[in-house]
Every structure is written in structure tokens, then in C-alpha cells.
Amino acid sequence: MYKAIKVIVKGKVQGVGFRPFIYNLSKKYHLNGSVQNNFDRVVIIAEGEERLVKKMVDEIKKSPPKLAKINEINIHQIPLAHYKEFTIIPSVKNGRSIPWIPADAAICEKCLEEMNDPYNRRFHYPFINCTQCGPRYTIISRLPYDRSNTTMKEFTMCLDCEVEYEDPWNRRHHAQPICCSDCGPTLTLYNQGGKTLAENQSAITQTVDLIKKGKIVAIKGIGGFHLACDAYQEKVVDQLRLRKKRPQKPLAIMVKSIEVARNLCFISSQEENLLTSPEMPIVILKRKREGVVPPNISPGLSTIGVMLPYTPLHHLLFENHKLECIVMTSANPSGLPMLYSDDHLEHLQNICDNILTHNRKIDFPIDDSVVQCDAENAIFVRRARGFVPEPLKTTSNVDHIIALGGNQKNTFSVGKQNNIVMSPHVGNLENEEMIDSFEEQLHHYKEFLGVKEKYMAIDKHPLYASTSIATKLNRKIISIQHHHAHHVSCMEDNGLNEPCLGIILDGTGYGEDGNIWGFEFLYGDAKYFERLAHLKYTPLPGGERAVKEPWRNAVGMLLYYWPQEGKELCMELFPERLTEINMMEQMIVHQMNTPMAGTCGRLFDAVSAILGICSISTYEGEAAIKLSDYMNRTKLESTGKMYSFHLKTNTASQLQLDLSPMIYQIIQDKLQQQSIPAIIQKFHTTLVSCCVQMILKLLRNRPELNRTVVLSGGSFQNVFLAREIQKGLQKEGFNVYTHRQVPCHDGGLSLGQIIIAAHQL
């Protein structure tokens, strides 16, 4: 019996070889009809024997292309039209639901084999790609995803590529970036003055020689320029740090193969899966002590960010065995937007010796994604290349709402119907250049998605850049408390709707009482929240300066807790700071430029400074990162030892965590020259215990509260804290959730903001 159906497939179905896949199924099952892309779906008409039509649908559901992700399949029986054949028909731009913009994908095995085959016409061609790999997001100007809507429209296909593109049996059938050395992009190597040194294969060979000789080369990739140098040469790494103005922040490395990565680092099976996935992110790995990578790659840390070659060009750089491990860090000067256009070459000339670029335009810059693993969980540190811009489905009506995120590690979120599209990592909105970059990307997303926002959700902090951006756009503004957004971000990340408890540990967030929050115990959902408990406030002498100089946190705490003895302890711990300590004492007494703060980030800063680990931060979170890294270095002993703390009730009938006994005991241990790793382990164990004890005490006071807890905020990048607090609460019968698809830090803030805004409307 013959049957005709119309199949509408929504999800990640553009730029993943979906139409050729359907065409091949039509031949396999002897079906006639058509397949077509449009703005937000693929539409299939299939006519044939009923059992064969059913087999085709089953195979679409069970075995779609590797890069595809099907969200929804709708099947409708339609009258027979008696098609004579099966065809791929031109795309149309219509449809109201969310368009799924394909992400960039690392080179696939088949393309890699062809590139290394001397008899293949794409031998050593650095822009080889197919329907299963290559640039997508970074080259798309508009949707639907057709070559004419990408930056590849500037390259006219040669006859050979055109034959492959039109052949439904070829794996490059309708591969939009298809090209070869006769018709595609080319490479050029320049010296520092802008003079052409070489092109194409010769440019690659000379680049390898330059890197081997200790030169720093800017290399244009899929999403922007990287700075590359030989990671084994300590002096050139120092030179790169000097030029990039990045004295301490870890640098990522790219290694030739998984075997090289294993020689340098310990790698679990999950970490290996991430390293070799189509997204190929940077994975934070524990380095082996006998490794040959110099310590200045990640100063003061036991870990290193590692990635494998993910573009054809990267593989060609390692091809002749001269290089094994290179630094690959974004080329922008610290704190400025990514450099991705040839218009930016003059900015690169000050920080590199040579520039290897190509003439395929990047429409959308994007940074490398960064993940770390804790047992079976992958944790996003930076959600970008390969993972963006995958829409997140929600039960909330977020249509026409845009959330602008925070000032640090910024991302924004755009709502369309019941889908949220989060931007990639933008960065810190601390200067005009970063704000311009933010506004440009936001405009691009609105155009892509066809969204004209009616409402803008922003952080309540009056001095955040998002406030002035939203005001300038003259939209209806919804201000949202920072930690409430963190709480709801983790709820949404786990599909939770019922009110629940939240432990929010982070660095800085504007509090509703005018103080700085960041060690919060909340209860609520997207509609409302209660602050049930928090860390006791202590002064931050100098405000923002105290964030960049952690020793000031410590001095502020000591002078506040013990005015007389505290000053003596300050002078013993920081003898070179006597004049400043006297000045800060007066600032605290007279409450001059000394906001009150109770945050986990500032607590870590203070302890890091007290223990002599980091007194001045050269990058965001440095003191806390270096302190918590000690928990990775040695096998932890379950001693059960803890410092003292108090849980008290304040005037607002909230519970308050007083950690002054712990601070005092840590100082005594330090002055008595106790083992620093032992002090740090005891400090971490105390924080875990006080969080668990606080939740238990809150439930004793309020037994009607839901026993579900979400953990959010930047301090939960500390794997030990997240794991042990989760385990401790689970032992007490709580359901505990951590982040899965978005970062726990401010990179996930816009997700919480957009959901809260939807419920406030």
C-alpha cells in the first residue's frame, strides 16, 4: 500500500548534512518526494510503500547525522501527489519558531584522511571540509544556511567542487563551505611590517620554522586570531606574556595528538572523550610533574588547559614532526575584544613577530570553549566554540525578552517563544571597546533570530554597563538581583520549577541592602526569593581596589574583627604594608570608601593572602584559583579536622555565618608554620561543613521548605567545594543540583535573568 507523509524536523538540522542524509534514505527505501531547508526546520515529503516510509522515519529518529540534534519531529499524512523522483529543493526563509544556527565543528576523520593523501586533490589543503565538519557559525551572515548567506559566497566554486556539491551521493553534497585549492581561501604569511613572506603551503612550512626558532606568530583560525609559540621554550612564553600583558593568567596549549597530551597530563576517559569530540574544547587537565611544559604556561597551578588540533591548518602545523606542543591563546591584548578581521592586522603587529592569515572572512568571532571534569560531570568554564549557539528549550514564555547578563564573563540571552539562545562568552564589559563588541554581537543575534525585544532584563547593580546599554536602547527594563539570577539559572539548567533552596557562592553581587553579597542561602523560584542566611559582612577597604589586592581583604577582616590584636596580626603578616595598614584603619573607622561585603570570593582572597599564596591578583579570581589548586596537588586525607565557626541570628531574623574563629585559627597555624596544604584542606572542609550545617539548621527552623538545593555562583568552579557540599547534603537526604549546560559563574547569569523576567511580566 502506497502512502504519502510530510515530516517536519526541528532542531540542529542545518549545516549538518541533513538534506543529503534524507536524499540517501529516499534511495535506500525507494521513496519519491522532496526535502527542503527553511528558516527554522527541514521539511520532507516522502511517498512510497507504507512499510518503507515507516523505516525511513525510524532511521531519521534513531541514526541522524553525527552533528545533528533533533528536538522535534512532526509527521502528517497527506494526499499522494505521485512524485516521479526525490529531489532537494531550494531553501526558503519563512517560519516563526527558533532557527537553529549550526556550530563550528572540528575536522572529521574522512577529511583528515583526504588531506593527508598525496593522491587526493585536496592534499594539504588547509580549508578542507564537508557536511560533517568545518566552519558554520563564524561564517554565517544570515539564515537559512546556504552558501549565498555565508562569507564563502565570495569564492566561486570550481567545476570539480560544483559536481561534488550537486551530487546527492557525495558527502559534500550541499556542504556550504565546500572548496579546494583551485577555488577556495588562501593563506598568506606576513612579517611584522606587513610584507608578504610566503603563501599557502610555503606559508605553513615557514610558520613552523619561525615558531621553532622562538618567534611568536599570530594565526587566523575559525573564530579569530591566536598567538602561537613553542610551548617548550620558556623564554618565548615569557616574551608572549610581556607583549600580551598577561603576567600570570594560564595559557592554553595545543598538542599534536592525544598521545602527546597523555605524556604531559593525566587524562580520564571522559576527558579524552571531550578532547576528541566534534566540539574539541580546551580541557583543563592535571599536569604530570615530569612533564616538559615549563611552569610559566600556568604559573602556580597544577593544571593546564589542553586542546587538540581542530582545523585542517592546525594539523598541517604539526605535520612535519618539528612541533609537538604550542601555546594557542587568543591574540587580543588583555581586556580587549577578540581580533578576527584583517582590519585588525595593525593591532597584531605590536604583539607578534609574524602573521599567518587567510582570506575567508569571519562574520562572527568566537573564542575557544573551556571545560573541566569532575568524575562523570563536565563543567563549563567558558561556553563558546562548538557549543554555541545551541538553543535551550524552556517552559517559560521568554518571547521578545533579552537578558544582558553581568559585567564579568558576560553572556547575553535572547528569547524567542519558548527558546533561549545564549551568546558565546563575550568577556568583561570594563571598557568602551568591550561594550562596542557586546552591542555588535547583540545586534547580530537579534537580526539572526528575528527578535525585536520588548523587555530587557539587567543586573540590579547601578554601575554595570548593562544598565547604560538598556537605558540607551529605551526598552522596558526589569532589574534582577544578582544571586536570584544565579539561583534560577541553576534551576533552569536542571529543569526545576518548584521553589527550592540555593547555596550561591561567588565573588561580588549587588545586594538589596546596599552591601556586597556573595555567600548566600536563598529560597525561592523565578517568581520570588527569600534570603534566609548569609556570611557576616566585613569591610573592603578601597572597594574595587581590594578585589585586585587580596591582602586588603585580609586586613579589612582582621581590623574589623579584632581592632587591637588584629592590627598586630596585620603587621606580622604584611610587614611591608605598615603605612597602608594605618591608612586602612582610619578608612574603616570613618567608613570612607569601605563597602561592607560578605562573599565567598573575598573570603578566598583573604585566606590566600594570609597564607602568602597571592597578595595581588593579576587576573580575575587569581588568589582563589591558586588557593583551591592546592586541593588538586596531593591525595586528600579524610582527617575530619575543621576550624571553628558560628551560626547566629541577625537583626533581620536571618541566620548569619561568622567565620572569624576560623580566620583566627588559620593565622595561628600559619604563624606556627603548620603545613600550608594541611591548612588549605582544613579550610575547605570547614566551608563544606558550614554550608551543610546551615542548610540543616534552616530546615529545622522551617521544616516546610522543599528539600531540593541548587548550587550556583563562580566559587563552585572549585570542584572540591561543589562535589563535597553535594555529597554532604545528599547524605542528609537532600536532592542537590549543579550546573550542566551553562557555567556556574556569571557566564550563566543571563539564563537566570531571562527566566525571572518572563515570570515577572
UniProtKB/TrEMBL annotation:
The keyword Metal-binding applies. Gene3D superfamilies: 3.30.110.120, 3.30.420.360, 3.30.420.40, 3.90.870.50. GO terms for molecular function: ligase activity. Transmembrane segments: none annotated. PROSITE patterns: ACYLPHOSPHATASE_1, ACYLPHOSPHATASE_3, YRDC. Its EC number is 6.2.-.-. Pathway: Protein modification; [NiFe] hydrogenase maturation. It catalyses: an acyl phosphate + H2O = a carboxylate + phosphate + H(+); C-terminal L-cysteinyl-[HypE protein] + carbamoyl phosphate + ATP + H2O = C-terminal S-carboxamide-L-cysteinyl-[HypE protein] + AMP + phosphate + diphosphate + H(+). The active site is at 19, 37. Residues 4-90 form the Acylphosphatase-like domain. Keywords: Hydrolase, Ligase, Metal-binding, Zinc, Zinc-finger. The keyword Mitochondrion does not apply. Residues 201-386 form the YrdC-like domain. Belongs to the carbamoyltransferase HypF family. This is Carbamoyltransferase. The gene is hypF.
